[in-house]
Structure formats: C-alpha cells, structure tokens
Design brief:
Structural class: mainly beta
Strand content: 35-45%
CATH architecture of the largest domain: Beta Barrel
Number of helices: 6
Strand order of the largest sheet: 1-2-3-6-5-4
Shape: globular
CATH topology of the largest domain: Thrombin, subunit H
Largest sheet: 6 strands, antiparallel, barrel
C-alpha cells in the first residue's frame, strides 16, 4: 500500500464541506494512519506481510483507535500518523476473528475528537457516506452505499450483512465509513470487483458494519478477544467455482494440512450435509461445535470421492497474542 505522503483522491471524488450537516474537516481529523511491523516468524507474516499500513479512527477520548484487524494482527510495533504530522506509538489492544475488527491503544495524547459509533442497521442503499482515510478531504471519498448483503471470505469468514460502497477507495484498509451525522458506520476491509449489466465490472469497498463492535467492545478492551467460545478453524482457503467449494490453499501446519487435505480438492459435504457455496460451507463447519471439534468432510479429488476428518483448532492459538493483556 502506498504511503500517506504520495497519493490523493481526485478532487471530483473528494467530499466537500457544504454537502454535509456536520463539521467535515473536524470529523476527518479523527482518522489516523496505522503502520505496523510484524515478526518474520509470525503465523500471518507470509500471507499479510511483515509491514502493513492503513487507517484507523479514534472512538474513545482515552486514545482507543478502531481499525481493521488484519493490520494489527501479531503486530510488534504500531505507529499512528496524525493529520498535523505527529507520529504516536501504539499497542494492540485486541482483535476479533469473526467480525474482523482490531483495536489499538495510542501511547500518547492524540488531542483529536473521538467519533461516536452510529447505527449501521439503519444504513440505506443509496445513502451518501464518506469513506475516510488519514489525511483529510484530499484522501477521502464521497461515496454511496450500493448494497447490503452477505459476504463470505476465502479465509473462513462470513458477514451476514456487509455494507458495500462506491466509488471504491484505493487504500481501503481501516478506512472509517462516516454517516450523515458524522458518526462511524463501519470500517473498510476490502476492495472488490462488482459486475454490472450496464457498466461492466466496477470496483466497490466492503465495509464491516459497526453494529458488530458493540457486543464485543468491552471484551476487546479488557482481555483482547471476545469471551465467546472460539469457532472451529480448519486452516484453509476456499473459493466458489461453479456452485462448488474448491480448496485454493492451506495454512502451513494448520489443521487441514495436517489432516491431508490438498489444494484443488472439492468439498462436497460437511458431516453428511451437502455444501455448494462458501458461506454454507463455513456455517456448516461452525454448527458442529466450538474449536477442537472434529469436522468430517466428503471431498472429490481427481474424480474420486473420499472422506477426511479434520481436528479443528482455535485460530488464535496460532497467533502471537497482544502484549497489553
């Protein structure tokens, strides 16, 4: 991802103060850059890299910054960049694998307004929003909500109702979705291609809805992860191909690799129940119990049908834990 000093959004795409009922510049000042380093031997280093950058937003006066979890997972160092040029160190408070949120504690005063958390359940398609990055108007986008629907990610991740916005922000990770009241409605996670009958393929951002934070916020602040029992994790990457679930890759030494699953295997059923898409596959696995449960898969491999049972795990046990707790 480009650094915060060598890019800006086209002026036509930037939000303009007169278009919003709140103080746009003051609100955007609460969005900070997030830069992290991760040890080379960290579990996520090969997939997510050892140097990561994105954004976060101040949500509490005591210096708690909300961001997307993949930026801070297993982070050893964190620097927060403010719009006035200051750099402030931070520590990881926690992250949640199910929602994708991450929290950072600033280790010095930020002297910025903390933004209120909004109500993402009330977000309507067509609603005007701002996808806010560190750097103010020049690096933020005046956008609209274009969809609210289920999203399944290849890394064993499902949101019941993600928010999708356009135009897409080019540096989306950890951007704050700002609503009409100047509050936070979600956090940017991905940039995706969306097929359109009228315009061909277009780019959109996938936003994690802010309503997923409230039930777990106190737990993230105090113990670094939700208190709920962890879901079973298989350690695989899967994709939808023609109404089939195909294994695209495996986490090194993860449960699926240890069980003998291979890339290109096609998952036909989980514990006897047929699956034909990612969301259904992951939800069926999670329905079997908590982390540690045995997960029987029926797979097709080079035309032959076979059975494999995976001893699931808690994904967090593979990760370096936040040092604050």
């Amino acid at each position: 991802m480009a650094s915060a000093t060598d890019w800006e959004v086209s002026r036509a795409a930037q939000p303009q103060p007169g278009d919003y009922a709140y103080d746009l510049d003051r609100t955007l000042s609460s969005v900070v850059s997030v830069k992290t380093t991760v040890a080379a031997d960290a579990f996520t280093a090969d997939v997510l890299g050892t140097e990561r950058s994105g954004h976060g937003v101040l949500i509490r006066p005591d210096g708690v910054v909300l961001t997307i979890g993949y930026l801070v997972t297993e982070a050893e160092t964190i620097w927060l960049g403010l719009s006035d040029g200051r750099l402030v160190p931070g520590d990881v408070l926690g992250y949640d694998q199910e929602s994708g949120f991450g929290l950072v504690q600033a280790l010095a005063r930020l002297d910025l307004p903390a933004l209120e958390l909004g109500d993402s359940s009330a977000v309507a398609i067509g609603q005007d929003v701002v996808t806010a990055a560190a750097g103010g108007r020049a690096r933020s986008i005046a956008a609209q909500v274009v969809a609210r629907q289920e999203f399944a990610g290849y890394w064993e991740y499902v949101l019941d109702e993600a928010i999708f916005t356009a135009p897409a922000h080019p540096y989306w990770g950890g951007t704050a979705l700002i609503g009409p009241a100047g509050d936070v409605l979600g956090i940017g996670s991905l940039r995706l291609e969306q097929a359109s009958a009228d315009d061909g393929a277009g780019q959109i951002n996938m936003i994690v809805p802010i309503d997923l934070l409230e039930p777990i916020l106190d737990d993230l602040l105090t113990i670094g992860r939700p208190r709920r029992p962890p879901r079973p994790w298989l350690g695989l990457y899967a994709v939808d191909v023609d109404d089939s679930v195909v294994i695209a890759g495996l986490a090194d030494n993860g449960p699926a690799e240890r069980a003998g699953l291979l890339a290109s295997d096609i998952v036909l059923a989980v514990a006897g129940a047929a699956v034909d898409d990612l969301a259904g596959f992951f939800r069926r696995v999670w329905s079997l119990g908590t982390a540690g449960v045995r997960v029987p898969l029926t797979i097709s491999r080079e035309g032959s049908v076979t059975e494999i049972t995976i001893n699931s795990a808690d994904r967090n046990t593979f990760l370096k834990a936040p040092r604050v707790h």
